[in-house]
Specification:
Layout: H1 3-16, H2 47-58, E1 63-70, H3 82-87, E2 94-100, E3 107-112, E4 121-123, H4 130-135, H5 140-155, H6 170-179, E5 183-186, E6 192-195, H7 199-202, E7 207-216, H8 218-221, H9 224-227, E8 231-232, E9 238-246, E10 250-257, E11 265-267, E12 272-274, E13 276-278
Antiparallel strand pairs: 1-2, 1-7, 2-3, 3-4, 5-6, 7-9, 8-11, 9-10, 10-13, 11-12
């Protein structure tokens, strides 16, 4: 189904339901995400579909390199509220599944089809390049981390290696980030210590609270094990949860969680183990 047909179908559904919405940018393809109704979905609910669609179109060598979740809700899901999207695009929530087909440097981008009852994905490759993709993430800390990861992924052969069937879903990862105590943290000299600052503690104060998440091939991009040789159990892939709030200025907390239920990270000489690691400069 073409983009124009999708838009026509959405408008038809709106007419049938007697709910008329006037889109001010229907002629602007770059605003495709702002033009949909949608259902709430976790990251994994459409991942199998995105994997199948990308492989079918671009071949068996297509590799998943990143999942980005913008404005993730407290239940680990995203959704687009059409009326608020029109007035405030920053409020849009969506998952982006990003693929690469070696040796090409082109990123293939999919997002869940937001039509009610849909179970497939829509390809956005034609509408987004790296810069516009990074532009979807408004928070500076996350944007820098996603940007660095994307630039490394484009020029190197790294990808998500965790099997979809074994992957913790976004709601489970967010629950780990919200509730784990203690977690592993490091000071600027990479000296490890424990931290009791999880997502729930961080969000106990402040306003304008938002959560962004992304799944990243951490072993090939973050290189923490190189800098911190006494860190054990560091997984090849990592869920990153970025919390942002306003509290005497804008403050961020960036936590990394394991991506499989049996994984655990630790610092041997401290007897410290956790499934969550504090990656932000804001640590205590």
């Amino acid at each position: 189904m073409t983009y124009k047909n999708i838009v026509l179908l959405i408008l038809l559904l709106a007419c049938v339901s007697a709910s008329m919405v006037t889109f001010t940018s229907c002629g602007n393809e770059s605003n495709i995400i702002t033009q949909f109704f949608t259902n709430e979905v976790t990251a994994k609910q459409r991942l199998d579909s995105a994997n199948a669609q990308s492989t079918r179109k671009y071949g068996v060598n297509t590799k998943l390199v990143l999942i980005v979740g913008k404005n993730v809700k407290s239940n680990g899901k995203t959704d687009i509220a059409t009326l608020t999207a029109i007035t405030n695009p920053d409020s849009i929530g969506t998952w982006l599944y990003i693929y690469k087909t070696p040796p090409s440097d082109t990123l293939r981008i999919y997002t869940p089809n937001p039509l009610p009852g849909a179970s497939d994905c829509i390809e956005l490759t034609a509408f987004y390049n790296i810069n516009s993709l990074i532009g979807l993430i408004q928070d500076t800390s996350t944007k820098n981390m996603v940007g660095d990861a994307l630039n490394f992924i484009v020029s190197n052969n790294v990808s998500i290696t965790t099997q979809t069937s074994s992957l913790l879903d976004s709601d489970s990862s967010l629950n780990l980030a919200n509730t784990s105590d203690p977690i592993i943290r490091f000071d600027p000299s990479f000296i490890p210590d424990t931290s009791h600052l999880n997502g729930n503690v961080f969000f106990s104060t402040g306003t304008n609270k938002t959560i962004n998440m992304f799944l990243i091939p951490a072993w090939g991009t973050l290189h923490l094990s190189t800098y911190i040789p006494n860190l054990i159990g560091f997984p090849p892939d990592l869920w990153i949860v970025n919390y942002k709030k306003t509290d005497t200025g804008t403050t961020n907390l960036i936590l990394g969680t394991v991506v499989q239920s049996g994984q655990i990270m630790g610092i041997n000489n401290m007897g410290l183990t956790s499934r969550v690691i504090n990656l932000s400069k804001y640590s205590q």
